[in-house]
Amino acid sequence: MMFKVSAFFILTFLSENASPVLIQSPFGVLRSPSSSDCNATRSASPTVSWEFSLKPEQILLLRILTHAQRCGEFNIVVEHDSKIVYDCSYAGPHTLLLAAYSKLSVTKTAGLCNASNIAQYKTLGLSTKVPRFATVHRNVTYNIKVANLKETDPKLECQIDFGDFQSVWFISSIQLKIHAYKEPGQFYYEISCSVKNSTDKLTKFGNIFVETDLQSAQIQYKQLGFQTTGNLTLRFRHSYMYPISYGLLLTNTIISKNVNTLEKDKFLNRHNVFVDFNIPVEIRMKLGPGRHYFTLITENNISYAESHFILDMATTLTDLGVHSKRYAAIKPNYFTINITLEEGCPANITIEINKYPNNELVSQIKTLCSNPDECKLVQVKVSLKKAEEKYRVTVFANNQISNGSAISQVFETVPQIYDVYMTSDGPLYANVPTNLMIYVRGDIGGFEMTLEFEEHSKHVPFTIDSIKHVHSDEASLPFDSTFYKLIKERIIFTSTGDQLINANIRNSKQIFNFSSNFIVQRQPTCLESVKIRDGNSNRAIGEPLKLARELILSADVTLSCVKDSNIKFKWKSFKVDSSSQLPRPENEVKLKGNIYNNEIVIRSNNLLPGLYVIMLEVSTNDVTDKDVTSKARDFSLIKVPTRKLEVLIKGGNKRQL
Q: What pTM does this model have?
């Protein structure tokens, strides 16, 4: 039978002929036969036996109590692997560490049957917590625990053999041991614990995979072959690492390779390895000629890395040409150089601007065209500092299999006019003097302006002496007027209705033509002004209003009287590169917002990212003859930011990049 006393399981003698009792409790006390036990057997020397069956990672800690050494009362025999390791006459230590199969027997030798405590036992287990994978040269923590071992128990002497000819000793029940492996591979570690002078050990075996960190790899790349036919190999070079899996991600195709054979000499001697990927012709034909970008993925169990490279598939460059206008812009304004290729790509393009005729290099610009469409026409904006000088452009183009060059015609830098905007400082009436407000953006220099209206012609010489300008009497403008010179010219119309002003600005090299329509009224009309209400009345045209999700613009129309006339609202939008650029008809973008006459609702998905001038034109029509009697305009500058791309990924594995 079995009963519990003081947290120990006490197992007592049953009968002489009973089989040994199999111990399953992790700890307990073993007792000699009691008087009742002795009376229940006919033998003069009753015997009780206990067997302990342990798991490989367990060991039995058996302590023979001191008072149990009275051999005159009973004989204690401990067998381990069919050998007697202790009996009553044993003079060695009374604490035994026994592994595998063990048996303890107690035989009464005297007339006393007093149920004495003979021995204490405890089953010890060794557990470890070690990561399966580790990184070379980084610390690995071995979490070691001896189950059921208390401070009052005998101290265990333990040793860890890390499997790389390194080991460490310690004495404790719970330990955290740190070790760093110096090379990759699979290592078999062994942890063993024993009591002093004991032959048996508590042992735990395991293995750990040590790998190199691929994020530290410095991968060098070389392309062998550059055409859509023939051999084309992508070669990568880096120091030896183990293990490593390669994935070449090219468009929607993945080419894989693995290195699973460990060569320690290459790692220890820092050998470089070469990995070649042959690109099949069918993939090259699918990609087509030009510059392509691909990703090399390297990974193992402890790291993941991405490296980005370029693949060029070249075709022969033919018929390189370079063209520019006869007159070039002066800084800060830009002019355009057009470079053409009949066939071939990709192309590295170098543009050299030289003074003429001494061929002094003034500027060098490098650019690239990646595919056949880009290489048909490459446009480069250039700015030159000095006026009245002559230049010539030389262009060099090359790729891996061909090259070419071209020279432009001679051109010169002269002061030029780039933009003109003409309006008036108020309503126009017949036979009443009116100020024309003419905003001119151009280079520093002298010009002459000609205005032609009705049957009159007026010549106005003027000089631009500065790039930036400050205007005190600002009109409602669709642009930032900082870079525009304001010219005020007083004129008188004698006729009413739509009146056209044709004008030009010229110097010795250039003529810039422009025109504008004005409505000349017989008498004042009810329409005085219009103002776009955008929530920021103090905002200048040069400071754009940012469009987040939705923007509501409404019109405040000022009428001085009530007459029988129709009011019409017309909203337009123009995409511009900067706040100083004029909105032109060719840059008009159709508005897709909700328009309610004097109000418009613009949402972020109605316009592509960029800068826009929103124009509102309000006109009144006579009820009887339907003629337009008056017009008024206002402008607002808005910026549509680039929208963030949101991606929802379901499934897959989480990796730290």
A: 0.68
